[in-house]
């Protein structure tokens, strides 16, 4: 029960970090904080500040990109369904299960490692192009937003404090 309440607190803390989608993230109806091209010397500081400030929003965007990819590419949907079933079957076994394979005694942790290896190998063989395209598109979106979005006034104070710490 304690693990569940601890996880609920973590989720609650994460959801508190989500910024308003319309006003802050997309700048709808705002004129002072909007999208513009940064000066080359300010680009890295702007990206760093925005990546930190909008981290929860970016996590939701990456999850949305992954969900869209699974829906658009049926091959990914099949892989997700098959491996979800295998992981469910493995994780619902008793913790101290052991299987005798020839002369070797295989524990549940061995089975987890083996399934993780097979899972990764099959995904790389059958879906690498789709996965890398999705990762590339989502990273391009996140980095473009972080570079072009004006640093929010709430995050500017933190950015100036960090710059003051760096300078001797």
From TrEMBL:
The keyword Cell cycle does not apply. The keyword Ribosomal protein does not apply. One of its GO terms (cellular component) is membrane. It comes from the Eukaryota. Keywords: Membrane, Transmembrane, Transmembrane helix. It is found in: Membrane. The chain crosses the membrane at residues 56-89, 121-148. It is a multi-pass membrane protein. Belongs to the PRA1 family. This is PRA1 family protein. The lineage of its organism: Eukaryota, Sar, Alveolata, Ciliophora, Intramacronucleata.
